[in-house]
């Protein structure tokens, strides 16, 4: 347990060193939310405007969280590889599962922080109002749903250089966010693109996190989302085994 605490301490020391990146990862979606929600209600009744702003707040909280899965997590892993820290840990008595768990706890902390900041912004600056049960449901669904994307970040970390990692992460992050309906409803897309959108994990994440306001919970989307996470995790495991066998 002492070793695990030391690993956690190291992760949160890295948080202090990378504070600017953390602020950007949360600040950019908050800025997008404030900008687009400012004219989202043009031509709509107050009731419908409130629904659009609420839903946009929740999807922007998801968008903010995913940045940590696609950037913070894989680049933290890559830094450990380049500095030989991971190699040293593999040849030490430290169980590797503790190393990965410490990394994941750090990302979950970032998720909680991002969701809280976006929710507070929506409530204070855009007067988003919900029963406490819906706030909590939305928070937990965002936390759980975004966790399914951590294996995607693990896959990104297997690219050989940071330039390629950055390019792949940016393409995946932005394209999945837009295609999945996190920036705008997919009903605004052409029919052929809507079909493609429904295949993305971010579309199913959006369905899950907006479930508290639907007539029924998006069980199918939750299963698909978990399935994506498991498939990515299996691929990452196989790549890891192949790398260590060389």
Q: Which blocks of ≥5 consecutive residues have pLDDT under 50?
A: none
Cα shape: globular
Query: Structural class of the secondary elements?
Result: mainly alpha
Q: Give the SSE string.
A: HHHHHHHHHHH
- Distance between termini? 32 Å
| Number of structurally distinct domains | 1
Main sheet summary: none
Q: Count up the helices.
A: 11
Estimate what percentage of residues fall within beta strands.
under 5%
Q: Please tell me the overall pLDDT.
A: 91
Number of strands: 0
Oligomer: single chain
Helix content: over 70%
Overall radius of gyration: 19 Å
Question: How would you portray this structure in words?
Answer:
The protein has helices at 2-17, 19-37, 46-82, 85-90, 96-125, 132-147, 150-156, 162-179, 191-197, 201-209, 219-245. It is mainly alpha-helical and 246 residues long. The protein has one domain. Helix 5 (96-125) runs antiparallel to helix 6. The chain is globular and about 65 Å long.
């Amino acid at each position: 347990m002492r070793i695990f605490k030391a690993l956690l301490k190291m992760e949160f020391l890295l948080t202090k060193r990378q504070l600017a990146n953390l602020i950007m990862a949360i600040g950019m979606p908050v800025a997008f939310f404030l900008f687009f929600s400012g004219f989202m209600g043009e031509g709509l009744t107050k009731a419908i405007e409130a629904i659009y702003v609420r839903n946009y707040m929740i999807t922007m909280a998801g968008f903010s969280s995913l940045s940590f899965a696609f950037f913070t997590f894989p680049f933290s892993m890559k830094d450990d590889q380049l500095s030989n820290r991971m190699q040293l840990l593999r040849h030490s008595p430290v169980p590797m599962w503790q190393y990965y768990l410490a990394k994941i706890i750090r990302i979950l902390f970032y998720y909680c922080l991002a969701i809280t900041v976006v929710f507070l912004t929506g409530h204070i600056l855009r007067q988003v109002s919900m029963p406490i049960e819906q706030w909590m449901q939305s928070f937990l669904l965002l936390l759980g749903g975004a966790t399914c994307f951590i294996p995607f970040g693990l896959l990104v970390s297997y690219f050989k250089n940071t330039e390629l990692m950055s390019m792949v992460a940016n393409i995946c992050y932005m394209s999945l966010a837009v295609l999945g309906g996190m920036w705008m409803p997919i009903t605004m897309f052409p029919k052929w693109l809507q079909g493609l959108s429904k295949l993305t994990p971010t579309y199913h994440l959006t369905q899950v996190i907006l479930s508290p306001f639907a007539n029924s919970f998006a069980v199918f989307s939750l299963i698909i989302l978990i399935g994506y996470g498991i498939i990515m995790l299996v691929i990452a495991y196989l790549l890891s085994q192949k790398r260590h066998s060389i």
